[in-house]
Automatic annotation (TrEMBL):
Source species of the chain: Solilutibacter tolerans
Keywords: Heme, Iron, Metal-binding, Transport
Record bears the keyword Transport: yes
Transmembrane segments: none
Top-level taxon of origin: Bacteria
Protein name: Hemoglobin
Annotated GO MF terms: heme binding; metal ion binding; oxygen binding
Annotated Pfam families: Bac_globin (PF01152)
């Protein structure tokens, strides 16, 4: 008996489908829609960028060129939004992917969310400014 996890069968087409369905839900979501909709001026273009991002994360394609932290910094994101975003992501992943791939994408999303939350200073911790040496 092996303890190895089942191997993923995730493809770019799976990611396209996940991104498409998920961000359609985001646009209609009463909590996240008011944050995303004013920020995204071209949803098809934004979804294409997100497919590149998630393909880079999950498939190692390295096609995404951008700075997610800088992209999210100017928006009115609160720490509590991350839990809602993750729950919707997980639900959608299980709707459009097999269970193994859905949980893999959820694990990636958890790491990304944790990183963004920390980088945006929304993790509930105090983040002092770096000390600058004196003259």
């Amino acid at each position: 008996m092996s303890d190895a996890l089942p191997e993923t069968t995730l493809t770019r087409e799976d990611i396209v489908r996940l991104v498409d369905v998920f961000y359609d839900k985001i646009q209609a979501d009463p909590i996240l829609g008011p944050i995303f909709n004013p920020a995204v001026h071209d949803w098809p273009e934004h979804k294409a960028t997100l497919v590149k991002f998630w393909s880079s994360v999950a498939l190692g394609t390295r096609e995404y060129r951008g700075n997610p932290m800088a992209a999210h910094r100017p928006h009115p994101i609160l720490g509590e939004h991350f839990g809602h975003w993750l729950a919707l992501w997980r639900q959608t992943a299980h709707e459009v992917l097999n269970d193994v791939d859905a949980e893999e994408m959820y694990a990636y999303a958890q790491r990304i969310a944790r990183s963004l939350k920390l980088g945006l200073g929304l993790d509930g911790r105090w983040h002092p400014l770096p000390m600058h040496p004196g003259p």
